[in-house]
Every structure is written in C-alpha cells, then in structure tokens.
Records
---
Amino acid sequence: MKEAQARLRAEIGALLKRAERLDRAEDERFGTESGGEALPEELKRREDRLLKIEAAKARLQARQREADAARARHEDDGRKPTQGDGALERLIWVI
C-alpha cells in the first residue's frame, strides 16, 4: 500500500512538472489568456486513484479500530495485529 502511494505521488509530481513546462510553452505561444487551465487527463486519473486509495485505507483503518475496540484491544496491549482478510491488498488491485 505504501509503495503504491509513494509511486503515485512520484508520478503525480513528475506529471505536474511536465504540465508546468507545457503550460509555460503554451503561454509563450498562445498568450496567458487562452484559458487552458484544465488538468491533463493522465494526471487527473492518477490523482483520483490516489484519493481512492487513501480513502479506502482510512475506511479499513477505521474498521480495524472498531474491531479492536469490540475485542477490548488497544495499541499498547502488547499483542500483534492479525494479517486480516487481505481486503486492503484486494482493493489496490481493483482500483
């Protein structure tokens, strides 16, 4: 999960730099009033995917906290968490 998030952040950063270069070139060619301020589709898809992954991760973490609370578990109880049912890994492949 962390690797996928880091990879997407790096790809988004590279695409933003590329978009900035293209934007400057278009501004020089067409002027600054051309109205081409929309995000490139490739960048939008990656940002959307990253947002979905982060939202899913937050939901899964909340679900785990609820399950831990139901079992009277807390972070400092010395027990190791179980591996779960693999829902997070399956979710990454779906997105």
---
Amino acid sequence: MEQMELKEWAFREKEIKRIQDARIDILKQVIHKRETEIEQVNSERMEKIWQKKLQERELLKEKIQKKKAKSRSTSCAHYHLTTYSPAETR
C-alpha cells in the first residue's frame, strides 16, 4: 500500500512539474512578445521624433537663409544709396 502511495505521489509531482514548466514557457513567450511590441512602438516613436526634428532643422535653415539674403540685399541697397549719388554720375 505504501509503495502505491509513493508511486502516486511521484506521478503527481511529475505532473505538477510538467504543468509548471508549461506555464513558465507560456510566460516566457508572452513576455518576449510584449517586449518586442514595446520595442517596435519605441522605435516608431523615435523615428517620428527624428523626422520632426529634421523638419524643424530644415525650416530653421531656410529661415536663416532668407534672413541672410534679406540682410545682404538691404545692406547692398544701403551701400548703393550711400556710395553713389546722382551728382557723381554726371
């Protein structure tokens, strides 16, 4: 009788171990999937931020170039007006 109980307990322990191992495998898969999804979301978010920063940089660059061009044309016009007078051209 005692030997039968020991065999039954051993069987139960093996069954419990098998179920626990299966649960651990499932948890590992779920965690891996979640980490992959989080990594993908973070990657997409970083790409959007990067593209926005590049766009802002380009806009700022264009703004600076326009300001420079305007400054040059204004200083050239001012130079032209102060340097050449109608009296000198005659």
